[in-house]
Protein 1
Amino acid sequence: MSFGAQRWSPWLIRSPPTATDSKLTDVVLRNFERRLEHLVEGTFARVFKTGLNPIEIGRRIVREIDANQSVAVDGALAVPNHYWVYISTADYERFQEVETPLTNELIEAARTHIADESYRVLGPVSVVLVEAAEYPEGTLQVQAQWREGATTPTTAALVMETGERFTIDDGPFTVGRLPDCSLILSDENVSRHHAVIQRAPGGWTLTDHGSTNGTTVNGTPINEAQLQSGDHIVFGATPATFEAR
């Protein structure tokens, strides 16, 4: 597979530094690994028993971020905001079961590193897994790309019919009847762990957790849906409105 040249924005005034200029540190990697750790040790642990480990994907994305710094006209450090992750067919097929949560965690970890280093980006950060049939199992290649685009909304909330407002933070926002949920609903039609809202490329994603009575968005039953500000959601029999700014 041949990898195309990166696209550089006209407001950048020098090429990226070499790998030896990277600000990659053990602290950065440890922070990155902690963010991904629950996927490896949690519900999806069996997916990661063989082949490529997601921690290594995180390490390579961090390296790619730091290795592609450029200086903007005003002196700020800028980095690419889109990352292609090329992996073997065996690893790609194994990751299909967890692609959405894994990709979301990689994006969030990349965003955190970019913010911690005060880097500038042209638009929302995104990560895409790509099947590369010629790659041996356990190997990968990360390619960075500059993509201009609208800034992702930074805040979101669920607004109930009573007017009560629940802020959705960057981490998973869970909805259900159990006390460990971010939003606890007393509705008997709501399952114990009913649904979850998470950051996704360009915004937020709502996923139903196999609830008994289902979840709808604007009247349509969903398993997973990309949310837009103003969407009307019903968890079981409890309505709410999603807002993002």
Protein 2
Amino acid sequence: RREPLALINLKKKSEETGEEELASRLDHCKAKATRHIFLIRHSQYNLDGRADKDRTLTPLGREQAELTGHRLASLGLKFDQIIHSSMTRATETTEIISKHLPGVKKISTDLLREGAPIEPDPPVSHWKPEAVQYYEDGARIEAAFRNFIHRADAKQEEDSYEIFVCHANVIRYIVCRALQFPPEGWLRLSLNNGSITHLVIRPNGRVALRTLGDTGFMPPDKITRT
């Protein structure tokens, strides 16, 4: 969201519109609440699937999702919603997690689907998508960042807690953008399946990273990075 001062037409300020009214307008536009963003990477899935519908969670992946759901529930927070990628592995992960958070609404979106956000720097030899993917996926993932990662609306009175279930590339790009790091460095980060990344967005727009890719709640033999 934009700075409150940018939302006011200062040209309309006249002798009749003094400092007190200007301050009132600014206060009306300012965010008052903090947003807590929990970015969850989907659980382990079947890499042999040819189409998205075939890339379902493995038995271990389902266990990971149960562990992630249990961890989120144990935090004792009042989650407002779960927004998830429309891809099969993210949808299945969401369904399992949501069993631990009854009553929390679920929203599916194509914006959070996996893709190639931006050409990584330095380049890597093991992953080289077609150049067109960066243009197609990059615009969509950037749109996801702008749509979902922002300070609270001025009308929001209480702090909010939102869960986003999506993919490693999307999460890594969002973290870099949110922290104002060079987004080309996204591939230097690593995320386990079912991991929890916690971003905090203060009313003044300042962003803090509480945790990155946390899987400390999983037994060592349940941790994967596929």
